[in-house]
Amino acid sequence: MSTTEKAPARQAPPEGSIKAKKRPGDLAFSGSSLGAGIIILIVLAATAVFLVVQSIPAIAGDADTNPILGGENFWSYALPFLFGTLWSALLALAIASPIAIGIALFISHYAPRRLAAVLGYIIDLLAAVPSVVFGLWGALFFSGFLQPFFATLTDTIGTWPILNLFFSGPVSATGRTVLTAALVLSVMILPIMTAICREVFLQTPKLHEEAALALGATRWEMIRMAVLPFARGGMVSGAMLGLGRALGETMAVTMVLSGSPIVAFQLLQSGNPQSIAANIALHFPEAFDTGVNTLIATGLILFIVTFAVNAVARWIVNRRAEFSGAN
């Protein structure tokens, strides 16, 4: 064979014939991840089945023999507690959302690095405080501290149109109202909302921020045009996680609020709606027979509401999934 002649080119192996060798570590990691996902689904399904099965005697059973219903329809009993749960949680979310976004923006774009690190640690440490401590603080100190402010609030805006639906008197003498409970809940959900918003703000592409500043935008204009649109999905996720925490909170609401099964929008009066979780905590120790099933049925309602809130949040986030720093 002449030296000028070229050897025939080696044919490429057919596509898909080469497979990467699976290492034991990869197999262990993929198997454990799959197992963890399956366990989560099994636990969620088992919880749902348990709640449904245990709720049937209360929903479809005889209300006259139920020690809690006492002849009352189940839905007439449960709907006021559902209202109290949603009302206190939405109030807490409305209070905490702007504060969390403001703190997160200050930490990520305004504060010096050392101060931002200290503030971040302090906010994160709030999440480690037990809920019973927040309940004691709200019941023994915060409610009494707020009572004079509530009285002033009623005297000033309690007679205004529309606002009198929320701030009319007479004011509770103890200050333990649904607004106090909402303020305590807002402090409790503040760490998780702030942490998520802070991380999302820090993930904003630097090119977007620098481009806005190069075009002459002020820092706030840069945040409004580049940071907030990019972080909208993350802010919604943080808000929904905070709402889920507020919906299921038990001890703080139980200790702060002396609620009852009523539907009332007044924020400062003695008569306040009770939440589902607090009602279960108060009545479960003495419940028996179908009364236990009744409380479990209200827990099923709370389970469905929380699941729906997370589903809506996922839908909102998915609508923003096409927007990313690479676009």
TrEMBL record:
The reply to whether Nucleotide-binding figures as a keyword in the UniProt entry is no
Instruction: Give the primary localization class.
Output: membrane
What is its membrane topology?
A: Multi-pass membrane protein
Q: Where is this region: Disordered?
A: 1-23
Spell out the subcellular localization from the entry.
Cell membrane
Q: Name one GO molecular function term.
A: phosphate transmembrane transporter activity
Q: Which residues form the ABC transmembrane type-1 domain?
A: 82-313
Top-level taxon in the UniProt lineage: Bacteria
Keyword Cell inner membrane annotated: no
Pfam families tied to this protein: BPD_transp_1
What the record says about family reads: Belongs to the binding-protein-dependent transport system permease family. CysTW subfamily.
Instruction: Tell me the function of this protein.
Output: Part of the binding-protein-dependent transport system for phosphate; probably responsible for the translocation of the substrate across the membrane.
| PANTHER family tied to this protein | PHOSPHATE TRANSPORT SYSTEM PERMEASE PROTEIN PST, PHOSPHATE TRANSPORT SYSTEM PERMEASE PROTEIN PSTC
Q: What is this protein called?
A: Phosphate transport system permease protein
Q: Quick one: which gene encodes this?
A: pstC
